[in-house]
Design goal:
Elements lengths: L2 E2 L8 E7 L5 E7 L10 E9 L5 E6 L10 E2 L1 E4 L6 H13 L8 E7 L8 E9 L14 E7 L1 H9 L11 H8 L21
Parallel strand pairs: 4-9
Antiparallel strand pairs: 1-2, 2-3, 4-5, 4-7, 5-6, 5-10, 8-9
């Protein structure tokens, strides 16, 4: 992970590994916000947390967080330089929600291509089985306005009403089906691999 801060109190700078379309690293990094070249990509993660009762912990984006202020979403964000996808998933959840997820309970259930204005964002979708309580959550106020425990039907309704980040609609039905299947929590890509994703 490459971060730099010139003075105490200034925000750490975030660097991304630059990838090819096939997700292999180019060996180059860029500072977040720098324009990507036509054949350059970066990786983001979407992190879904599901309880034993099949309830999901979702969060509402801060009201001043662009794009999609106030929309509901899974936790997630950009993978930083030097991180693996799994490491980024664990870090984002700890930063945004204050939860330390068990890394061996994570399943990589989909790998998505970007679309439209986020065409250079590749996304990994993670599902963690975790017996959480909302009382355990400590939100990062600059990123998260609120959290909610929701079942699949509630999430589907939020998506249909346009209250969820739009890119989730492209894979949610497949994810809901995958997450309800029995099986060990091993890392595996689902049949949604190659679908279009968005930028958390």
């Amino acid at each position: 992970m490459q971060k730099s801060s010139s003075q105490a109190g200034t925000r750490d700078l975030e660097f991304w590994d630059i990838l090819r379309a096939d997700r292999t690293k180019t060996g180059r990094t860029k500072l977040r916000g720098e324009a990507l070249g036509p054949e350059e990509f970066h990786l983001a993660v979407h992190v879904w947390i599901r309880s034993p009762s099949n309830a999901y912990l979702i969060s509402r984006r801060a009201l001043d967080k662009q794009p999609f202020p106030g929309a509901w979403e899974p936790s997630g964000g950009a993978v930083q330089a030097g991180e693996t996808s799994l490491e980024a998933a664990l870090r984002e959840v700890e930063e945004e929600l204050g939860l330390s997820l068990p890394r061996n309970e994570g399943r990589l259930v989909a790998q998505l291509n970007g679309e439209g204005k986020h065409s250079q964002t590749l996304s990994d979708v993670w599902l963690f089985e975790f017996d959480f309580s909302p009382r355990q959550v400590s939100i990062q106020a600059t990123e998260v306005a609120d959290v909610m425990v929701a079942d699949s039907k509630q999430i589907s309704t939020l998506i249909a009403e346009g209250k969820f980040v739009p890119y989730v609609a492209r894979y949610w039905p497949a994810l809901a089906a995958i997450s309800n299947r029995a099986g060990s929590p091993t890392r595996r890509a689902a049949s949604t691999s190659g679908q279009s994703g968005g930028n958390p």
